[in-house]
Amino acid sequence: MNPRNVLILPGWQNSGPDHWQSRWERAHDYTRVDEHDWMRPLRGDWIARLEEVLLACDEAVVLVAHSLGCIQIAAWASHSKNTSRVKGALMVAPPDVEREDLRQMLSGWAPVPLQPLPFPAIVFASSDDPFCAPARSAQFAAAWGAGRIAAGPRGHLNADSGLGDWPEAHEHLLELMRL
Predict the structure, then answer these.
(1) Rounded to two decimals, what is the model's pTM?
(2) Mind listing the pLDDT tens digit for each residue in 76-105?
(3) How far is 29 from 149, CA to CA, in rounded Å?
(4) Position 52 confidence tier, pLDDT thresholds 50, 70, 90
(5) How many distinct structural domains can be found in the chain?
């Protein structure tokens, strides 16, 4: 599989240079999907951007999402006619955008689509993610038909979590790429 067809989908405010997504992008030549506005994300714009980048790829893709990127995948998959172009998705730390505090920060992202994804997916979730309770991330994974990996108490599974290159998750990505 062409590594350029691994699409990195950061969450709100993008992923900084020490984030595992940025490290993977640099190390493996994966493609970051750049959004028009990282600070005021609009669900429709993000869905359209994913569709645009996906259609420009020369073969099937694997999606690698963090945080709001997970909700982006679920929302995109519930509308797109091009889901067959996705081999699989690695979804890390989905936020509960239906919580009142997040609903105010990320207006327009609720409700979370809870339909099965039409491709294999794996959800990594932390037991102490400040943006999503473990029971809620388990509900997302079950509704999406995704496998769920409990990552232990590691916060939001971002640069602050001290994951470095996060080889454990990268192994799961490589499995998705081999599908």
Answers:
(1) 0.98
(2) 999 999 999 999 999 999 999 999 999 999
(3) 25
(4) very high
(5) 1
Helices in the chain by DSSP H: which ranges?
20-28, 43-56, 68-77, 100-105, 134-144, 167-177
Which domain does 128 fall in, by range? 3-177
What's the CA gap between 6 and 54, in Å, rounded?
A: 10
Residue (of 20, 128, 121) closest to 71 by Cα position: 121
Give pLDDT, residue 110: 97
CATH code of 31's domain: 3.40.50.1820
User: What does the CA dihedral 168, 134, 63, 9 come to, rounded to 10 degrees?
Assistant: -100
User: Which pair of structure tokens corresponds to residue 5?
Assistant: 């067809």
pLDDT reported for residue 78: 97
Distance CA 47, CA 39 (A): 16
pLDDT at 39: 96
Amino acid at residue number 48? A
Angle, vertex CA 42, rays to CA 11 and CA 89, nearest 5: 40
| Residue 123 DSSP symbol | E
Buried/exposed code over 60-80 (b: 16+ C-beta within 10 A; e: otherwise): bbbbbbbbbbbbbbbbbbeeb
Distance between CA atoms of residues 52 and 48, nearest Å: 6
